[in-house]
Amino acid sequence: MKAIRFHEFGAPHVLRYEEAPTPVTKPGEVLVRVKAAGLNPPDWYLREGYKALPPEWRPSVTFPAIPGSDVSGIVEKVADDVTAFSVGDEVFGMIRFPSFGESLGYAEYVSAPASDLAAKPRHLDHIHAAAVPMSGLTAWQFLIELGHNEQNPLQSERHSPVPLAGKSVMINGAAGGVGHLALQLAKH
Predict the structure, then answer these.
(1) Distance (Å, rounded) from C-alpha 47 to C-alpha 153?
(2) Alpha carbon distance 128, 72 (integer Å)
(3) CA nearest neighbour of 43 among 99, 92, 2
(4) Is 128 within a domain?
(5) pLDDT tens series, the chain, 188 aa
(6) In the 3-class helix/strand/coil scheme, how is the chain assigned residue by residue?
(7) Domain end: 102, 122, 142, which one?
(8) Domain shared by 138 and 111, yes or no
(9) Is the pTM of this model over 0.85?
């Protein structure tokens, strides 16, 4: 298959469009033929080697690495223990986040845990569906429900969503990926 990979950390010029092995589907996974992949800040943080993090916090990355956690595509193969999806299903999701260089979505195929995927809404094309997972989850966690109890090591205070009923909400950056989804969630 073809994939966008990098063999060293650096600026965008380290990305190469090249041949790569097609991923093997493991138990609990499905093989997805990627129709579209989203681009998010963690993709370039990975490509740059997480240089904004203190050295002791930087994860180990095996090269070559394929970035891209947000994908939309069509199920090509299903592991024997997966019952939620069938070959031909259209799916989207945020694959193995946070991941540190495993084979991800900037490729023709990705092997993904079935639990990281959802049925793609029929009214969304693959390009729009691939833009939703990380941005949508970020907006949801800030406004509606955090969904986990882990403290962010980069923040001194634990985040808790604020009840929105009856309140005015200002979304700074409502034209961006997270912002336009936050605006819709707040309005809803």
Answers:
(1) 21
(2) 9
(3) 99
(4) no
(5) 999 999 999 999 999 999 999 999 999 999 999 999 999 998 999 999 999 888 988 888 999 999 999 999 999 999 999 999 999 999 999 999 877 667 789 999 999 999 999 999 999 999 999 999 999 998 988 888 776 677 776 677 777 777 888 888 899 888 999 999 999 999 88
(6) CEEEEECCCCCHHHCEEEECCCCCCCCCEEEEEEEEECCCHHHHHHHHCCCCCCHHHCCCCCCCECCCCEEEEEEEEECCCCCCCCCCCEEEEECCCCCCCCCCCCECEEEEEHHHEEECCCCCCHHHHHCCHHHHHHHHHHHCCCCCCCCCCCCCCCCCCCCCCCCCCCCCCCCCHHHHHHHHHHHC
(7) 122
(8) no
(9) yes
Look up the domain containing 162 and give its range. 134-187
Q: How many residues are present in the chain? A: 188
Place of tokens 């799916």: 91
Residue 128 Cα distances to 5, 43, 139, angstroms: 23, 18, 16
User: Do both 113 and 140 map to the same domain?
Assistant: no
Residue type, 55: P
